[in-house]
Amino acid sequence: MTLTSGLGGQLSIDLGALARNWRALDKVSAGALTAAVVKADAYGTGIDMTSRALHAAGARFFFVATPDEGIAVRAAVPDAHIFVLYGLYPGAANLYIRQNLMPVLSSMSMLEEWLAKCVERNEAYPAGFHFDTGINRLGFRLNEAALVRERIDALGYAPQMIMSHLACADIPNHEKNRTQLALFGSVRSQFPTIPASLANSAGLMSGRDYHFQMVRPGVALYGGRAVTGRKNPMQPVVTLHVPILQITEARTGESVGYGATYTLNRNSRLAVLGYGYADGFFRTMSGTNQHPGGKVFIRGKACPVVGRISMDLTIVDVTELGSDLPDPGEGAEVLGPNIGIDEQAELGGTIGYEILTSLKGRYSRNYVGDGRLPE
Ligand SMILES: *Cc1c(COP(=O)(O)O)cnc(C)c1O
Question: 287 C-alpha to center of ligand 1: Å?
Fold first, then answer.
């Protein structure tokens, strides 16, 4: 493929695949509401288009991290129910109310501020309540559950949802999953009539026990692998092609790139790509003689990164292509049918989540399809 955009690379996002992924997860969690987590610009795929497509597929509940992300979803999907995972920013209650955003409250101070606003306006504005069951991140501590209940009972306030978050859901046999499930059960006993939510993508794939009334998949929607050591059942959503700028030849014994960290052990052909760490190709994807790094596919063949990845450029070895050399301007596949986000991530010692959320480079973003069901 030849790239034409003035930016060089092309990121393509398949909204049809995204929608199919949401519907597939919705089937697995039948009986629970399937929300969509669209924080971090919808895992790098673009919060606006992605939220619209998920809504067209059937999603009505959305989770974001920040209020700004909530505002973006509100603009894209006017009738969305939006939870803000960071909770309530001090002084921001009016903004949440204006935008009809639900904070996921996670501390007594957040709770007091929200309740004070409800009393002031004489209106029970909806909010989620987050309890920490063992990840030691955001959330009310378990021993605060009774106090939380007393406070809201005194005012006749009921949360929209109570939730917790699993630390080890990607490892299904991890004993921590059962422990957190049991602790979440003890929280629920304080709020027996309130809808509950525990599962991220991996939790959703761990069986009914984890579904409760709402599941919160993120990475699986975008085609990422949620559970380690299992075949990934999701359809890929993103493909990325970056431009080949130049083909060069170099001889045995010569070095490649900054720091001369790679020495050629044969006469080689190299392709210089218009793509570097400023575009989301991590420097840990560099290839030295001791440690192979990332790779791209050119004309369907794997071409390893050689030498350090620099800010704007990456060098790959195309010797194996023989005489079937690409033309300048042709695209090299960084993510696509030959290499997915999780495979590329593994080569750089990271996870698919980080590959996705780093898709902010100098390339155009094209959307394919939409969230609607085929007629
Ligand atoms: C990010 C996030 C999710 C989604 O997690 P995935 O592993 O991407 O499915 C769900 N719940 C909370 C609280 C999160 O922060």
Answer: 32
Burial of 265 (0-12, 13-18, 19+ CB in 10 A): exposed
Q: Are residues 208 and 340 in the same domain?
A: no
Distance 100 CA to ligand 1 centre (A): 21
Same domain as 199, residue 271 = no
Q: How confident is the model at residue 8 (pLDDT cuts 50, 70, 90)?
A: confident
| pLDDT score at 120 | 97
Going along the chain, which residue ranges are E strands? 9-14, 33-34, 36-37, 61-64, 81-84, 101-105, 128-130, 161-163, 196-197, 214-215, 238-250, 255-256, 262-263, 268-273, 295-298, 301-304, 314-317, 331-335, 363-368
What is the DSSP annotation of 230-273? Answer: S---SPP-EEEEEEEEEEEEE-TT-EESGGG-EE-SS-EEEEEE
The domain boundary residue, chosen from 222, 256, 284 = 222
The total number of structural domains in the chain stands at 2
CA 196 to chain centre: 22
Tokens representing residue 142 in the block: 């378990």
- Assigned domain for 320 exists: yes
Residue 69 has a pLDDT of 98
In this prediction, residues 232-249 reach a mean pLDDT of 96
Question: What distance in Å separates the CA atoms of residue 50 and residue 89, rounded to the nearest whole number?
Answer: 25
pLDDT higher than 50, residue 375 = no
Question: Residue 50: inside a domain, yes or no?
Answer: yes
**Tens of pLDDT along 84-130?**
999 999 999 999 999 999 999 999 999 999 999 999 999 999 999 99
Same domain, yes or no: 44 and 72: yes
Residues annotated as part of the active site: 39, 258
Q: What is the pLDDT averaged over residues 53-73?
A: 97
User: How much is the CA Rg of the chain, to the nearest whole Å?
Assistant: 24
Q: Look up residue 283 and give its DSSP letter.
A: G
Last residue of a domain, one of 173, 193, 222: 222
For a substitution probing ligand 1, which of 34, 37, 221 has the most ligand atoms within 8 Å of its CB? Answer: 37
Residue 201's nearest CA partner among 229, 174, 221 is 221
